Amino acid sequence: MHVPDGFIDAPTSAVTAVVAAGALAVSLRGARRELDERTAPLAGLVAAFIFAVQMLNFPVAAGTSGHLLGGALAAILVGPFTGVLCVSVVLLMQGVLFADGGLTALGVNITDMAITTTVVSYAVFRALLAVLPRKRRSVTVASFVAALVSVPAAAVVFTLLYAVGGTTDVSLGKVATAMIGVHVLIGVGEAVITALTVSAVIAVRPDLVHGARGLRQRLKLRVDGVLVDAPAPVAARTPAAARTSRRTLWATGLVTSLVLAGFVSFYASANPDGLEKVAHDQGIDRKAEKHAAADSPLADYGVRNVSNARLSGGLAGVIGVGVTVVAGSAVFWALRRRRPEDVSPVDTGL
């Protein structure tokens, strides 16, 4: 759903840039409350994983494909404020290095793909957890539904932005019907990827999943006819074991991201994604502009002067994952806050 330059006029793009800048400023402050020395590395990894999975377009309808947006996944794993920053880092890397998503439309893309998906998905996620049983399975179910809803929500926001500042004269009814229809289907893919990823991380380190915090109910004991909280269980993990577990999770996630971007991406669907397809069919792309980074050595997810398509795309994917994880980790490590439990003699690790 990366919006190219020329789809939305300059005034509207400028307004969304201001909105995006404000949201990023708020997210930077909010991320300081969400991140600590345990979760900051995971946030950088989440950004790299989203970059990698976005390269894996999957077919959703005749001649159309879709890919992960990632807002729901990031919000649930590392928190909504950090989630906005994760997706924004990905969009910045894609726009500057790979000519994917216009530079003048960066505010549009952050507003639509980072802010909208994260805010909507996390609101749905928390609402569902409030009524579902307090179990890990509920986190997976809520993740699925939240991700499913977030994608058509982004399609609605794009339609509204197009209604305000679209550069072509196209029936808004047709645009809305086409965008929402195809992105409901893409949302199913988003939901599956998000739920599987969240459940996989919960199975290994539930304490690192932001959306799963506070779900464990304290054991109750009946004493003299009155229910009281049982004593907290004695921690079983040493700090060294907890660090090893986090490092294993991080290394496994990074290797997975590299394999997805460097190898599996070659087998992704070559069909245009939902926005590209709708734009072509409805004529939205008539005033699309050449990307300012179209001559980048990595434009269109290929390495210039590497003739082998598989090798070129694989190298570009690996470079993208590497740059994203470094940039994201630098931002999140700088934002982290040391908390008392980070320096306590025992890290339970759940």
Automatic annotation (TrEMBL):
Keywords: Cell membrane, Membrane, Transmembrane, Transmembrane helix, Transport
Domain PDGLE span(s) in chain numbering: 247-337
GO cellular component: plasma membrane
Transmembrane segments: 7-28, 40-60, 72-93, 113-132, 144-164, 176-204, 249-268, 314-335
Family matches, as InterPro entries: CbiM/NikMN, PDGLE_dom
Taxonomy, superkingdom: Bacteria
One GO-annotated biological process of the protein: transition metal ion transport
Topological relation to the membrane, as annotated: Multi-pass membrane protein
Primary subcellular site in the record, as a coarse category: membrane
Keyword NADP appears in the UniProt entry: no
Subcellular location, record wording: Cell membrane
Protein name: PDGLE domain-containing protein
Upper taxonomic lineage: Bacteria, Bacillati, Actinomycetota, Actinomycetes, Kitasatosporales
